[in-house]
Amino acid sequence: MNINEASQKTGLPKSTIRYYEKLNIVPPIKRDKNEVRIFEETDIEWLFFAKQMRGANVSIKTLVHYISLFKEGEGSIESRIELLTNELLKLQEHISGLQAAERSLSEKIEKYRTHVIPVEKKLI
Is 1-55 a domain of CATH 1.10.1660.10? Predict the structure, then answer.
């Protein structure tokens, strides 16, 4: 498939796909005689992986580091697990912060309905 199809399939903009390839986050994409990228299923899987990691708030720098560890092979498994574990802890902290913000907003909305609206009605 070409880059347009890969973009549609993954939901990633073409510019992001090119950027990920440039940074070696995905393996080099095969090209035809006209230098047009030809994506295979494994390329799409790499793109989905990168999208998933970015969706989990993993930085580009960390993703590049993870990929470099991956390329080292089995000897880097423990390092990869440690990296992913650290990213999971960061994500859990972020989620916790978002949940606290959600509770705060919910409380403000509830107080608004029970306190501000009755006062406003008296003013009309």
Answer: yes
